[in-house]
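Ticket 4471: requesting a sanity check on a complex prediction with guanosine-5'-monophosphate. Repro inputs:
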Amino acid sequence: MNKLIIISGPSGVGKGTIVNELLKKGDYALSISCTTRPPRSGESEGVSYFFISKHEFHSMIKQGGFLEYDKHFGNLYGTPKDFVEKQLQTKNVILEIEVNGALNAKKSYPQALLLMILPPSLEELKARLNHRGTESPKKIKKRMERIEYELSQRDKYDYTVINDDLQRAVDEIEEIIKNS
Ligand code: ADP
Ligand code: 5GP
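Returned structure tokens:
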């Protein structure tokens, strides 16, 4: 039976990098979320997100079409149930979502495996965010402020994995998935 794997962790911890490594193995599919926010440059429909209107989003909520959904920065984001269930027929499915969405998804799909990725230290996390260079210093400060909350939820996760060495962390995650 294929598994639903939910990966969370603070911004910059390496979730995207880890997920890319898992996707290379071929046994995993990535869930694509729906959002009401407009695409950023370089983002395309059905790859980054399914970009839908508020009206469409609300009718999907009414139809019970989301495994979970939440509002961030004034926009709605949700995990489409149909898409995930279809992918699960052939592969393990990975959801890379923030803590609140992850815990809600676990409520509607209790067999999901909740994994939280942790940094080796807060200094290293800040260094990775700076090194990635996608956020302004102000945004980095805001993201660091949210980290305390995210880390406080770690006991609700099935497993935590420290992303110290990338390959070691990916191997540990694969081992957890295999044995769960
Ligand atoms: P997230 O998706 O959690 O926000 P990213 O995958 O974008 O994080 O990673 C943030 C930065 O950290 C990237 O520049 C990435 O190359 C780097 N990184 C990821 N994993 C490691 C690691 N194990 N050691 C050092 N740098 C890493
Ligand atoms: P962004 O607009 O930067 O792509 O994403 C903003 C926030 O929305 C991030 O914290 C991201 O994790 C979250 N997000 C993306 N997709 C989903 C989803 O399907 N469900 C929930 N709950 N949050 C999501």
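Notes from triage: The CA atoms of residues 57 and 82 lie 14 Å apart. Leaving this open until the requester confirms.
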